[in-house]
Amino acid sequence: MRKSFAVFPLLVACMLTGKQVSAQEKEGVHEMSKDYQAPKDPLVIRKLSQWQDQRFGLFMHWGTYTLWGEVESWSICPVDWVVRKGPYSEDYNTYRSAYEHLQYDFNPVQFNPEKWEKAANAAGMRYVVFTTKHHDGFCMFDTKETDYKITSPNTPFSKNPRSNVTKEIFDAFRKDSFMIGAYFSKPDWHSQDFWWKYYPPKDEHVNYDIKKFPERWKRFNDYTYNQIQELMTGYGPIDILWLDGGWVRPDGKQSLDMPRIVDMARSHQPGLIVVDRTVPGEYENYTTPEQSIPDKPLPYPWETCMTMGYSWSYSPRDEYKPSRQLVSLLVKIVSRGGNFLLNIGPSEKGDWAPDAYKRLEDMGKWMAINGEGIHASRPVAPYSDKNVYFTQSKDQHSIYAYYLSETDDITLPAEVSFAVTDVKKINKISLLGSKAKLQWTLKDGQVTIKIPKNVQTQNGLKYSAAFKISV
């Protein structure tokens, strides 16, 4: 028999000054690694190059926490920046018990991954990363290692024929040639071998001395190994293993056996990209600046992971970034050689907010015109000049100059001028989405494009105009 807990929406606000604070920021971990180690496996190198060509991906944080409109997992972590609210907030143990009993009410009956895939594909997204397990330990896949999972008889949605949502999502997106990424949290706050109930948890770290209890820590290593093995063997081809929780790292306190885990994973998934994020070394195949964009290109593969709103997980009070801002972020990230992993959190019912679909629709219309300078592009100096950002085709025959607008509808000046680097001759300049014939000059590394009067105000373009420069 279980205790019954009523669900209270908007129970937790884990934001400071309107901005969610990441664990990496709290830990003081600098995410733009200076110690990047390039992979040596030719299959990994090839896969990494393929991943860089995709440029735009979908991230999804989803779990039982959506029943409370929570910021994923963190409300059960006893750290000073978390603010708990609601009827259970005064007592930590009562609160945590209520949180873990959300499993008994989780029933996302509107779950339809094909609907998500269609919207993401139309927006120009080319890969997906899904949270198979977040820090709270609730598994969104059919693991055999714990009953704290969406397919457990304790979870109402287990009766749904599509209850193994990780498999359903991966299968739906794979049918349209998306690259597939499995997010997996290294820490697991539900596991007795990470947060042992003998001691109270003090923060996000393991709550006992693993040197005094090595057999318990070994069990956790085995548990982690077994769950990742399940994902690598029962869910079809996987391209990316995206490991979160960088405080679990080889510093002598709480290290996982990463060589054993990765060797196993790649034996089942040859060429697998491993992202042991914020842990520099051979298992961080690309870096992941969170909610930020580097000021200049980085000398190694990287990806900005960012929320469409303010929260990583669904919240009914969330506000989504305007479409123009999202397009601008995509352009800036790609111009610096990065990928953009844009997060949308499904609700407790199993769908996205209508605003999320609208943002993707707007981005898709923009990408239909301008995507050729985004997908499979490379950064090119000078990278940006004022409000103009540059990319280059892989064959180096075309440079794309993205003119970022300050309004949704674009009004172009009579002349657009910007600097170029190492361009001696231009064969043609065109405005994507327009049949207008343009005149230009190239002098002393400066390109000046004359814009016809009717194109200045009646171009029909939104957010950012792209000039294609054939060289």
What does this protein look like?
The chain is α/β, with parallel strands linked by helices and 471 residues long. The protein has two domains: 26-371, Glycosidases (TIM Barrel); 377-470, Immunoglobulin-like (Sandwich). Helices cover 24% and strands 20% of the residues. It has ten helices and 20 strands. The protein has a seven-stranded parallel sheet with strand order 9-8-7-6-4-11-10. Strand 6, helix 5 and strand 7 form a beta-alpha-beta unit. Residues 1-32 have low confidence and may be disordered. Residues 385-469 form the Alpha-L-fucosidase C-terminal domain. It is an enzyme of class 3 (hydrolase). This is alpha-L-fucosidase. One of its GO terms (biological process) is glycoside catabolic process. The record marks 305 as: May be important for catalysis.
Summarize the model shown.
The chain is of the alpha/beta class.
Features:
471 residues, alpha/beta, TIM Barrel, Immunoglobulin-like, 2 domains, 7-stranded parallel β-sheet, 6-stranded antiparallel β-sheet, Glyco_hydro_29_N, EC 3.2.1.51, Fucosidase_C, alpha-L-fucosidase, alpha-L-fucosidase activity
